[in-house]
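Suppose you are handed a protein chain with no further information: no name, no annotation, nothing but its sequence. What can you learn? This example shows the usual starting point.
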Amino acid sequence: MKDLFKLLRPQQYYKNLLIFVAIIFAGKFLNLKLLLTAILGFIILCLISSANYIINDIIDRKSDSFHPEKRNRPIAAGRIPFSLALIFSIFLILISLIGSFLLSPNFFLMVLSFFLLNLLYSVALKKEPFLDIIAIGISFILRAVGGALLVNVMITPWLIICVFFLSLFLATGKRYVEKIKLGEQAAKHKVVLKYYSLETLKSSLIAFLSILIVSYTLYSFLGSHRYIIITLPVVIYILTTYFRYILQAKRIASNIELVFKNPRLASAILVWLILIIIFIYL
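A reasonable first move is to predict its three-dimensional structure. Written in C-alpha cells, the prediction is:
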C-alpha cells in the first residue's frame, strides 16, 4: 500500500495549484460555489497527473535504475510489477475523465488533452531537445487554462505568457542541475541530456528568466489591478534566488517541491500571496 501511494507522487501535486490562478486573479476566490468547483478540478488534475507519472515510471523503469534517487521508485526497484501499476493507472484515468466530464465538457477536453500531451511526452517528446521543455510548458498552461474554464473567467494573455515562461525556466533549471550532478551518466538516465550543453542550458535559463520578469512587469503595469506593481521586487527576489540555486546545482533546483521547505523562498512566496490577496480583495 505504501508503494502504491508513492506511485501517485503526491509531492508533485503542487504543480496543479495552477488551477487556482484564474479564480484568484479574477477576484472570485471567495465565491464558495466556484471555489468548490476549482477544488474538485484540482483533485481530478492530481489523479490524471498520477496516472501519467505511473505510465512514465513504467516506460523509464530501466533508465531510472541508473539515477541515484529515482532508482528507489517502486517500479524501478521492482517492488511493484508494471502490470499492476498499469492497471492502477488505467483506473485513475477513467475516474479522472468521468469526473472532469461531469464538472464541465470543456474541462473534460482540457484533461484529455493534458493526459495525451503527457503520454506523448513520456513516449517521445522527452527525448527531443527543447520539445521536451516546451511540452512541459504547454502542460502548465493547460492546468491554468483548465482553472479558467471551470470558473468561467477570461483567459488572459498574461496568464498564458507568465505560466509558460515560468515552466520553461523551472524545467531548464532542472536539466541544468541533472547535467551537472549526473555527469557522464546523464544520458543514460535522460536521453535528451546528451543534446544539451551547460552553456546552452545556462543561456536558455537567462533568456526565460528575463522574459518572465518582463512579462510580469508588463502585467503589473497594464493589468486591471494597479497596485500589483508593488509585488514586483518580491517576484524578482524569488526568481533570482532560485536562479542562484540552479547555478549552484542545489538539490532544490531538481526537486522543486523543496521550495516550500526553504525558509527564504517559502517566506517570500507567502509575502507575495498576502500582497496579492490585499491588492485584489481589499
